[in-house]
Design brief:
Layout: H1 27-43, H2 59-66, E1 74-90, E2 94-101, E3 104-111, H3 112-115, H4 117-124, E4 131-140, E5 146-157, H5 173-178, H6 180-186, H7 188-210, E6 214-215, E7 221-222, E8 234-237, E9 242-246, H8 251-259, E10 264-272, E11 284-293, H9 297-316, E12 320-323, E13 326-329, E14 336-338, H10 339-347, H11 357-366, H12 377-388, E15 397-400, E16 412-413, E17 416-420, E18 422-427, E19 430-437, H13 442-457, H14 468-475, E20 481-487, H15 488-496
Parallel strand pairs: 3-5, 6-10, 14-15
Antiparallel strand pairs: 1-2, 1-4, 2-3, 4-5, 7-9, 8-9, 10-11, 11-20, 12-13, 15-18, 16-17, 18-19, 19-20
Helix pairs in contact: 6-7, 7-9, 7-15, 10-12, 11-12, 13-14
The structure holds one RNA strand of 75 nucleotides.
RNA sequence: GCCUCUCUAGCUCAAUGGUAGAGCAGUGGACUUUUAAUCCAUUGGUUCUGGGUUCGAGCCCCAGGGGAGGCACCA
């Protein structure tokens, strides 16, 4: 409702378009024409936006029920179907229309003799993009096309705006992401990508339930930043007058639940990181994190393989995916290899976080790896791994044994005090998952946090804060625990075979549209 | 933040610095078994925005905006 004080309400030359302005067929004229049809329906007592429709069959139901019909058969089997008009072929006293619902498409065989002159005229006025409900019988045409022959076609919702090109669809990537609704209407690939994403998440939930994991929800608004190494979004609560951060991870909350005795928990968590946008990064993304009491990193690597392989089978019907042109069977065992071994091979120098920092710096300098003064040997080795090896890991591989310095929440390797029992899963050069034997010693955890605070004081603005409540929780005793995080978006990219994270996020972060 | 590319009708795309076009969609007409239906006719433009060069700019130059890719950032 526009108020009388609305500055635009006095001069409204373009609000009520003059009939002359509706001439032609630009967008404005097209909308005007369709609105005219809406108005005409209302004047004749028909609702162009009725409240509901009784559907007896989805279009897939019709296909599975009658798909075997020979050409040229007319049944008397009644069906009520509904969908959006995607194509229309008008051939005089017959109209062929293709409608689509979520399950598929089917042709309407609309005969003037069957529906009558008045309704046939109304059907002629339907536009591509309109939603219709149809009561009719199932038949096949002479050429064998399975069709519904309507007794009655009812407009369920009038489309005022024309659909994108019926053949070429929508290719402009900007419009595809901004107007995802239009993308989904016309682009089969877009619908498929989100179906794969859905199947992946649904599969995860089934696998996790099978293993006795409980799904939980923990806060999105965090008073402290922790659980990962990233810059947060900051926000403010008015009545509490406190600064809050959108979560960068859910790790510290889920482990509190392990302390509480919940034993096996997971969360499919929208997570936020205040970082650049790229084909692999969206500021908000989804991680599945799980924690399993009495387990360690080996248990967690096993469940990682099971989750992802099962998800591929469920979403694609196969465990074989194509990565950079190579057929990769996810069901093959995934190799495990230490980060320091990758870095050593990549540089030709035997590297270990125990070696003198000056030696590691020399290797870094030889490989053009930038080094901050505050970095220790462990951090530099990680940089060397990323520089020399990361992008060449095509097949799913667990990179293991991250240095303690870069893993403040992971437990020290039982065989090497400089490394942790940690792994990251890499596929196609991308990190897909991260997990470890969880550090549960409150005294050591405090010391690790304090080291991190030192890094923060030295200028690392991605370091977390010292979470006293988390330490308090550990002081009550956390059982030995294995933890895991899987990037759902990146996994969906892998399974869908797309190169941009925006293809698997319905509404990716974009700058606001300018008009 | 930096570099490269890109932006023309609702959609998909053309247009040597010289009158902005086509297909689809739309409109009018023909057609009772079409399949992106076909056939005839036809409407539709702030060429992203603002400057500049030029007799003349969709095209060349500058600035700005959106997007994409790459780099940087990114456990």
């Amino acid at each position: 409702m526009s108020e009388p004080t609305d500055p635009h309400s006095d001069d409204t030359p373009d609000v009520v378009a003059a009939p002359e302005a509706a001439a032609g067929s630009g967008l404005a004229a097209e909308k005007e024409r369709r609105l005219g049809l809406v108005e005409a329906m209302r004047e004749s007592g028909d609702n162009p936006y009725p409240y509901r429709f009784d559907r007896t069959h989805t279009l897939a139901d019709v296909r599975s029920g009658w798909g075997h019909l020979e050409p040229g058969i007319e049944t008397e089997d009644p069906v009520s179907v509904a969908g959006r008009i995607m194509l229309k072929r008008d051939s005089g006293k017959l109209i062929f229309a293709t409608i689509r619902d979520r399950s598929g498409e089917i042709q309407l065989f609309i005969s003037k003799a069957v529906v009558g002159d008045d309704e046939f005229a109304a059907i002629k006025d339907l536009d591509l993009g309109d939603w219709v409900g149809v009561n009719g019988t199932v038949m096949t045409t002479r050429k064998g096309e399975l069709s519904v022959k309507p007794d009655h076609v009812e407009l369920l919702s009038k489309a005022i705006r024309p659909m994108p090109d019926k053949w070429h669809g929508l290719t402009d990537v900007d419009t595809r992401f901004r107007q995802r609704y239009a993308d989904l209407i016309v682009n089969e690939d877009a619908r498929r990508n989100f179906e794969i994403r859905h199947e992946t998440v649904a599969s995860f939930r089934r696998t996790l339930a099978k293993h006795g994991f409980i799904e939980v929800e923990t806060p999105v608004l965090h008073p402290e930043v922790g659980g990962a190494h990233a810059r947060p979004f900051t926000t403010h609560h008015n009545t509490l007058d406190m600064q809050l951060y959108l979560r960068i991870a859910v790790e510290l909350y889920l482990k509190r639940l392990i302390v509480g005795g919940m034993e096996r928990v997971y969360e499919i968590a929208r997570t936020f990181r205040n970082e650049g946008v790229s084909t692999r990064h969206n500021p908000e993304f989804t991680m599945m994190e799980l924690y399993q009491a009495f387990g360690d990193w080996n248990d967690v690597m096993d469940i990682t393989e099971e989750l992802i392989t099962t998800a591929a089978q469920d979403a694609l019907g196969t465990t074989v995916v194509e990565v950079r042109g190579e057929q990769v069977d996810l069901a093959d065992a995934w190799p495990r290899k230490r980060m320091i071994d990758y870095a050593s091979e990549g540089t030709g120098v035997e590297l270990h976080p125990s070696m003198p920092i000056s030696d590691v710096r020399k290797v870094a300098a030889n490989h053009d790896v930038f080094v901050e003064d505050r970095w220790g040997a462990g951090k530099i080795i990680e940089e060397l791994f990323e520089k020399t090896a990361e992008s060449s890991i095509i097949r799913p591989t667990f990179v293991t044994g991250h240095p303690v310095e870069i893993s403040p929440l992971a437990r020290v390797d039982r065989n090497d005090p400089f490394l942790t029992e940690r792994f990251e899963l890499f596929v196609d050069g991308r990190e897909l998952a991260n997990g470890y034997s969880e550090l549960n010693d409150p005294v050591e955890q405090r010391a690790r946090f304090e080291d991190e605070q030192a890094a923060k004081a030295a200028g690392d603005d991605e370091a977390g804060s010292l979470d006293e409540d988390y330490i308090r929780a550990l002081e009550y005793g956390m059982p030995p625990t294995g933890g895991l995080g899987i990037g759902i978006d990146r996994l969906a990219m892998l399974l869908a075979g797309v190169d941009s994270i925006k293809e698997v996020i319905l509404f990716p972060t974009l700058r606001p549209e300018v008009h």
